[in-house]
Write a structure and sequence with these properties.
Elements: H1 3-26, H2 53-70, E1 73-78, H3 84-94, H4 96-100, H5 109-118, H6 146-154, E2 160-167, H7 174-179, E3 193-199, H8 216-225, E4 229-234, H9 241-264, E5 275-280, E6 290-291, E7 294-295, H10 314-326, E8 333-335, E9 341-343, H11 345-348, H12 366-369, H13 378-381, E10 392-393, H14 395-409, E11 416-420, E12 438-439, E13 451-452, E14 457-459, H15 463-475, E15 479-485, H16 493-506, E16 518-523, H17 540-545, E17 553-556, H18 561-573, E18 578-582, E19 588-589, H19 594-603, E20 605-607, E21 618-623, H20 625-641, E22 647-652, E23 654-656, E24 659-660, H21 669-676, E25 681-686, H22 690-697, E26 706-709, H23 720-727, H24 731-744, H25 750-774, H26 779-782
Parallel strand pairs: 1-2, 2-3, 3-5, 4-5, 11-14, 11-15, 12-13, 15-16, 16-18, 17-18, 21-22, 21-25, 25-26
Antiparallel strand pairs: 6-7, 8-9, 10-19, 17-23, 20-22, 23-24
Length: 788
């Protein structure tokens, strides 16, 4: 096919999809525009964003051209938020909607009527990309996540190209701005490629964009500085913009092939300059240019629904009628004797084979391609039976050993990565470097440690970039971990929320199967952020995520290394989940054997018999590793002071939005009674904000017996033990609270209560004086040893 024929076909395809996008926004009847529009053809409520649709259609058509020409796998990620009418128009044209929804959206007028009537309607189709739509791997309009997700999707998919359309408004967001740096991390020898296309239509919802007011020279300098090869396409240049774009796509494809070919032949490709297309077309291109003297096309006024009173205003209706007529849609199709639409042969020449269409790209459906991990043998990694209970050890280091062995076992599958926005060493995961390295495509100096082109640890100081990459990696069927400092995890709270929405919505879609869990590891916990101070003390990500659906979110708070291993193994076996594992990186007592840890993980809650008495007078609970150490120390203290008092120790290691582990206190309240007794006082020491636990037990009839301790937003640069003191989670505070519960229940008298409280308060004063004088905690506290 000559270029002239290709350009003719492109123009027809874009005409068709622009027509269908417009029809979805406006029409409920007469969707093929067989007659002049009437007010009764118009929807009663007009929703959608027209301004970005023509650009989406233009790029989609050009991607199809490359697919047909080269038989190469592409996914198409659309960053501009509410341009779904354009996406859906193309999914209809290529046959993907009819493939997945043959009864609902047949390839005929009835199918077009369906997508028009249901677009942005109650119980219909959303105004943005969504999991219900074929081929989509992220929700649209996610505040700049598109490019990072694209980079994640191509990792370990060497034949895949992710074409990512980025709005110039979207490009102003922090997540998108950081995503350009992924070119430093992706090895062309073993991974696919991302083709970013920045759509510079000049305007956001009510004003200009930064890039829209930049010159070609300024754009060129910016992207060259970021390490890319910019290619500018501009509809105001003399050359036909369709010819410009076709040439730009061909050049980009050749550059991608050249980079990959050189890298795969053994050349060390340093700083590969991936292409980026900077595409200037008018916002609302091909729509109503102006109305009543107001400029619409090429202005922010075209951002959403223009001429939006078509159901009642004659002038608006005439403008829409002229607009739809300009596409001459009736010239682009015929209808066969079965009522099916048969599109123009030139259009058909740009529609890829079904298996190569963007909507049916199999890598978009991670549940179809996922392979379960080969798991390490926990018995070889765990603290064994020869390890005395209470021996100090490192939970995060054990997790690192698990990851090392898992990467070795799954080396040939290439389906496991770490996305680490903070230092992998700092989080005590360095054992992985015995098996792999950190990926780095820029110069590597001889003194750099653990860096290589094909490393499986992706490390860069941007939580947004790396969480987005993990999103792209997991929804395309691979396994990943995102370890980060607990205090910085809030940076990606919105991204995590969108990931959960994507997964939850996917569960109701018949052509999507469960995908591997997204595993967030929170380390550098607030209790030990003593040197960084108040700014690094923030457990709020936990509380935010525990507002979400219990089938999607699980928070695992293992008390020791063996429990951490068990929950790490579980997290990677999970599907359609976002798991949070909270584990400290400093040495702490090891409480459970591997079998005991496995037993506790079944329910997420367990009475520790080795630390408990029968028929208890009070219940002490630990949820989190540092706070469990303090709770166990409090247990030892109160037994020394009140040897006749009987205590039950309960460890809680899993939280969901519906409760503590598997304790369903709403339908089976006796389960809570069995664990926490029916009438005894409960002192609950929690790692995060107390309100999180208060909300979880609010509906339990015995909740008034609970005294919940946790982070009270008190902190500073101080000692580790003093962090617990400042927030009331120290062993001394727990003893005070247990003594009060015992006094309330009549187990001890007032004299005993006052004496114990006075003793603990004096110990707190003594501790403060000690750290002021010495700058560190006493050895007896810092290296506390469990005794029973």
């Amino acid at each position: 096919m000559s270029q002239q024929q290709e350009i003719s076909a492109l123009k027809k395809l874009v005409r068709a999809t622009n027509f269908l996008a417009t029809s979805q926004i406006y029409l409920k009847k007469n969707v093929l525009h067989k007659r002049a529009l009437a007010h009764t053809d118009i929807k009663p409520r007009l929703l959608g964003h027209w301004g970005t649709c023509p650009g989406i259609n233009f790029v989609y058509a050009n991607i199809n051209r490359l697919i047909v020409k080269n038989s190469r796998s592409f996914v198409y990620l659309v960053g501009p938020g509410h341009g779904f009418p354009a996406v859906q128009a193309n999914l209809f044209m290529e046959g993907s909607l009819s493939h997945y929804y043959p009864e609902i959206i047949p390839y005929n007028e009835e199918g077009i009527t369906d997508i028009c009537q249901k677009f942005s309607a109650a119980y219909g189709y959303p105004s943005h990309a969504n999991p219900e739509a074929p081929g989509q791997i992220l929700e649209g309009g996610e505040l700049g996540y598109s490019l990072s997700v694209a980079w994640g999707a191509v990792l370990d998919n060497p034949d895949l190209i992710a074409a990512c359309l980025i709005g110039d408004g979207e490009s102003e967001t922090g997540p998108l701005a950081a995503s350009w740096y992924a070119n430093r991390l992706v090895d062309p020898a073993t991974n696919g490629a991302v083709l970013p296309i920045v759509h510079i239509n000049g305007y956001k919802i009510s004003g200009p964009t930064r890039m829209g007011r930049m010159s070609h020279e300024e754009l060129d300098l910016e992207f060259r500085g970021l390490g890319y090869h910019p290619i500018i396409v501009d509809d105001e240049l003399e050359e036909d913009v369709y010819v410009q774009m076709a040439n730009a796509m061909d050049t980009s494809y050749e550059m991608i092939n050249d980079i990959q070919k050189r890298a795969r032949s053994g050349e060390d490709v340093v700083k590969p300059r991936w292409p980026v297309i900077l595409m200037r077309t008018a916002k609302g291109w091909t729509g109503t240019a102006e109305y009543n003297g107001k400029k619409l096309e090429g202005n922010c006024e075209s951002h959403q629904v223009i001429v939006n009173k078509c159901a009642t205003d004659k002038g608006h209706l005439e403008a829409l009628n002229t607009w739809l007529s300009s596409y001459k849609f009736d010239e682009l199709y015929t209808i066969n004797d079965k009522g099916e639409l048969i599109f123009d042969k030139e259009i058909q020449s740009l529609l890829p084979p079904k298996q190569l269409t963007c909507g049916q790209q199999h890598l978009s459906y991670g549940g179809e391609v996922v392979r379960a991990l080969a798991n390490p043998d926990l018995s070889k990694l765990a603290y064994g039976a020869e390890t005395p209970r209470g021996t100090r050890g490192l939970s995060m280091y054990k997790m690192g050993e698990w990851m090392r062995d898992a990467m070795k076992l799954n080396r040939d599958q290439r389906n496991l990565r770490i996305f680490s926005p903070d230092e992998t060493y700092s989080n005590q995961l360095q054992a992985v470097f015995e098996e792999t390295d950190r990926a780095w495509m820029w110069p590597i100096e001889e003194w750099d440690d653990d860096m290589a082109r094909d490393g499986r640890v992706i490390e860069l100081l941007s939580e947004n970039l790396l969480f987005g990459m993990m999103h792209g990696y997991t929804v395309t069927g691979r396994h990943a971990m995102f370890p980060t400092y607990e205090s910085f995890s809030q940076v990606v709270s919105s991204m995590a929320d969108q990931y959960c929405k994507y997964v939850y919505a996917s569960q109701g879609v018949h052509f999507r199967k469960p995908v591997p869990a997204c595993n967030v590891v929170l380390s550098s916990l607030l209790e030990r952020q003593d040197h960084n101070g108040y700014s690094h003390q923030n457990p709020s990500f936990l509380g935010a995520m525990l507002e979400k659906h219990p089938k999607i979110i699980s928070a695992y708070l293992p008390a020791d290394g063996n429990s951490t291993l068990v929950y790490t193994e579980r997290a990677y076996a999970d599907r359609d989940k976002l798991n949070i594992i909270v584990a400290g990186k400093k040495d702490l007592p090891q409480w459970l054997s591997l079998d005991e840890a496995r037993q506790q993980a079944k329910d997420g809650v367990m009475v520790w018999d080795f630390a408990s008495d029968e028929n208890p007078d009070v219940v002490l609970v630990g949820c989190g590793d540092y706070v469990t150490q303090e709770a166990m120390a409090a247990l030892v203290l109160i037994r020394e002071l009140l040897p006749r008092v009987r205590i039950r120790f309960v460890s809680v290691s899993e939280l969901t939005s519906s409760g503590l582990g598997s304790l369903d206190f709403q339908s089976k309240p006796w389960l809570m009674d069995e664990v926490f007794t029916a009438d005894k006082g409960v002192v609950f020491n929690y790692h995060g904000y107390p309100n999180t636990i208060k909300k979880l037990v609010f509906d339990y009839k015995g909740s008034e017996r609970f005294r919940i301790k946790g982070y009270e937003e008190e902190g500073s640069t101080t000692t580790p033990f003093d962090m617990g003191v400042r927030n009331g989670t120290s062993r001394y505070h727990l003893v005070i609270d247990m003594a009060y519960k015992l006094f309330q229940q009549g187990v001890i008298d007032e004299t005993q209560h006052v004496a114990i409280t006075t003793d603990m308060l004096q110990r707190l004063v003594d501790h403060r004086n000690y750290i002021k004088a010495n700058g560190v905690d006493p050895i007896s506290l810092d290296n506390w040893v469990w005794t029973r």
